[in-house]
Amino acid sequence: MLINKSFHDVPTKLNGGKPVRIFIIAPVVPDYPQASFPGVVVFSEIYQVTGPVERFAGQIASQGYVVGKYSSSLLPLIGIVNIRPACPSVYHEFEGPDPIPYDVEGTDRGNKYKVEKLVGAYDEDATLAIDLLASLPNCNGRIAATGMCLGGHLAFRAAFDSRILASVCFFATDIHSATLGKGKNDDTLIRVQNGDLNGKGELVHSLQMIFGKQDTHVPRQGRDLIRKTLEDADVPCSFLEVQAQHAFIRDEHSKGRWDAALTRSLFTFMMEVFERTVGRDLGPRVARNQTAEHVC
């Protein structure tokens, strides 16, 4: 499916009105100007919207989703619903929307910004991206989120917004250590413990966590803490641990960690989640509260 790209500069409140740039990648269906699609907020890693992030978002959009990019091999279309992604520029408080280089200086700069930005400002950006997607005439209002690294954490936090029906989080950093944002007042797991992922009413919600077992940024103890916190809070979640290192879906500058075959497999998994949750309107959820039978 064909796609086009644009952007919107949206004013913020926590940053004195300085706008956040939200990149939009949308499907194009010739001769159907009124076509509408589900939306996906794509949160970037610490390097903002780089080539790998844009290609990742473009692959989602080509499946028929409106993609909003948070600047911080295609699958066949048979049976796949259309989606539109949106990506915000994650470090708009500190510099423009251009990508940060994948070099030592760029890495240091991205990591510095990551802990200088207020957690509330990350949340505001996510809210603005969701608001923008919901307002677009070619988005039907059914919205999901995804992201990698820092973006995986932000996609997790986006799930606290009741309008997000599914979040697929790739190697989300800093959740286990509660070290995101200025002052290290990251309350992500506290909010899970307080039930903030359980109060979504009749909405269908799906949370998917994907980690590499060799990821030094999120060691086993950290992954175990995230999983235990989600399970103790009775949050419906799939937790995938694969044989990979950090940034294994980054198709350039991955320092030898990119696994194309594994990325393709997990992209298929993500699209199944999106098709099942935002791609279809199942109506209100009616919980049966049935215990699984112990049968062969």
Automatic annotation (TrEMBL):
<protein>
    <recommendedName>
        <fullName>Dienelactone hydrolase domain-containing protein</fullName>
    </recommendedName>
</protein>
<dbReference type="InterPro" id="IPR029058">
    <property type="entry name" value="AB_hydrolase_fold"/>
</dbReference>
<dbReference type="InterPro" id="IPR002925">
    <property type="entry name" value="Dienelactn_hydro"/>
</dbReference>
<dbReference type="Pfam" id="PF01738">
    <property type="entry name" value="DLH"/>
</dbReference>
<dbReference type="GO" id="GO:0016787">
    <property type="term" value="F:hydrolase activity"/>
</dbReference>
<feature type="domain" description="Dienelactone hydrolase">
    <location>
        <begin position="116"/>
        <end position="264"/>
    </location>
</feature>
